[in-house]
Amino acid sequence: QVQLVESGGGLVQPGGSLTLSCEVSGRAANSYTMAWFRRAPGKERDFVGLFSWPGSRTYYADSVKGRFAIGKEYLKSTLFLQMNSLKPEDTAVYYCATSTKRYINTDPNQYVEDGYGYWGQGTQVTVSS
Q1: How far apart are CA 105 and CA 43, in angstroms?
Q2: Fewer beta carbons below 10 Å: N end or C end of the chain?
């Protein structure tokens, strides 16, 4: 059984920080690439960042570069998203996703929804004063 469970969402003031977690179990634990996406109200689901291995490669969307960081706890198969200097425009439902594909740096599929076969249910992040 494939399962991804996000947690850690909530309400935070602008400029604050929040850490999201994504616990992976089942077949999804054999993934080579994991990513975070988000869907803001009234918008499509957008790529936030990814973590792939071997090599612990990360890549971020321009909108979060320098503010967000992705890490992985290998023993627990848990993916993290550390979000700093949060802005109201970061308000969204955040989803983690996994792929069993090992993407090379130039493969555009790793930055879109179709590149991932397993998804979590999402966790709400609201940035507001």
Answers
A1: 27
A2: N
- Per-residue pLDDT tens over the stretch 75-113: 778 899 999 999 999 999 999 999 888 888 889 999 999
Nearest to 98 by CA among 61, 53, 55: 53
Exposure letters 13-37 (e unless 16+ CB within 10 A, then b): eeeeebebbbbbeeebeebebbbbb
Strands (E), 43-91: 45-52, 57-60, 68-73, 78-83
Q: What is the 3-state secondary structure (H, E, C) of 1-31?
A: CCEEEEECCEEECCCCCEEEEEEEEHHHHHC
Q: How many CA atoms lie within 13 A of 58 on its CB side?
A: 18
